[in-house]
Recover the amino acids of this structure.
């Protein structure tokens, strides 16, 4: 389709969004925006991009900062490995490339957390190198227009789409081509309710001609969802609460959370109190359960979390605990998963309730557990 990139570029000129990272093609801006948008909608990612750039205006400022600051600015965005990898990569740039962002595709790929797609996006947009950046939007657009039924999650499919994208790319303006193709998938050729009637490719689109638009792209594998059961303990002792750092190679690595007991199934309160881990921490006669939240379902990409929060008061802390003791007002200093942050914010709001008669605020007592 020799006119493909011309049709695409004409559409892009008329429809592209005014996004902050498009005002500057410097590799740092492109890199930050691409990492943020990997698993994030543009409307949500824009605010995070602006805050990130304000906090870390260049690679050196990111490299010099402690990891906890990078995680804190990322809080609520999810997929925290992205922030950890960016922090490592920034230090790679400072140490291995004399503080200058690498300018070749192969060297860009050497940076932590950067794969084929992100390297191609940076190489093409910032350095004008002809590498096709293929993300979910691109798979969808190309599979529909060219009627490609090869599964996109297969080795054969990835090679086929890569070869096609490289044939179509505008050699003179590869960065604009890549941005236009991704934008087209985001705004025109959407997963649901695509704008087929106003599509500039409607006469060439094989999926549309076969009335099979929703059947593309084709995938083979469906990831099995893992169910996990988290019992978080909001522990109060001497006007302080406690956090622990997640250090295992798991979700939310290096973020902070309330002390947590993970179980293999949902537990009743009685079952939790009889749990070996709970019993090893707390003396039942010294433990007062203030309240227990209803089960909260938290969906991740391949996991379904079943979460409850228990408010606990004790007069004596377990001798073997490794928790961090903090005052509630210092919580903002720690990067915390959004799920837990929401609970803590709601709890803080409910701590003070109005006494309308005397125009005062007073502490709200915890509801008893049933």
């Amino acid at each position: 389709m020799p006119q493909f990139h011309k049709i695409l570029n004409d559409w892009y000129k008329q429809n592209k969004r005014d996004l902050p990272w498009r005002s500057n093609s410097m590799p740092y801006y492109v890199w930050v925006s691409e990492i943020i948008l990997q698993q994030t909608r543009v409307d949500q990612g824009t605010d995070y991009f602006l805050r990130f750039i304000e906090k870390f205006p260049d690679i050196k400022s990111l490299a010099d900062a402690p990891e906890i600051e990078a995680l804190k600015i990322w809080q609520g965005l999810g997929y925290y490995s992205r922030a950890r990898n960016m922090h490592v990569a920034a230090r790679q740039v400072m140490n291995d490339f004399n503080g200058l962002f690498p300018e070749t595709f192969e060297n860009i790929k050497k940076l932590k957390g950067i794969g084929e797609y992100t390297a191609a996006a940076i190489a093409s947009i910032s350095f004008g190198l002809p590498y096709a950046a293929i993300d979910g939007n691109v798979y969808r657009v190309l599979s529909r227009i060219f009627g490609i039924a090869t599964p996109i999650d297969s080795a054969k499919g990835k090679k086929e789409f890569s070869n096609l994208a490289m044939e179509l790319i505008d050699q003179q303006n590869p960065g604009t081509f890549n941005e236009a193709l991704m934008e087209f998938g985001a705004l025109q050729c959407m997963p649901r309710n695509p704008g087929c009637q106003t599509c500039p490719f409607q006469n060439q689109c094989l999926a549309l001609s076969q009335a099979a638009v929703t059947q593309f792209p084709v995938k083979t594998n469906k990831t099995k969802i893992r169910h996990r059961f988290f019992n978080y303990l909001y522990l109060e002792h001497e006007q302080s609460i406690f956090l622990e750092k997640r250090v295992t190679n798991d979700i939310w690595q290096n973020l902070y959370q309330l002390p947590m007991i993970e179980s293999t199934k949902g537990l009743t309160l009685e079952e939790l109190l009889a749990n070996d881990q709970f019993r090893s921490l707390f003396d039942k006669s010294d433990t007062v359960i203030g309240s227990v939240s209803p089960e909260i379902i938290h969906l991740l990409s391949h996991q379904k979390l079943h979460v409850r929060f228990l408010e606990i008061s004790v007069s004596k802390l377990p001798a073997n605990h490794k928790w961090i003791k903090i005052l509630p007002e210092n919580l903002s200093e720690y990067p915390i998963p959004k799920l837990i942050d929401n609970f803590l914010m709601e709890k803080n709001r409910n701590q003070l309730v109005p006494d309308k008669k005397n125009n005062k605020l007073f502490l709200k007592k915890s509801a008893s557990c049933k």
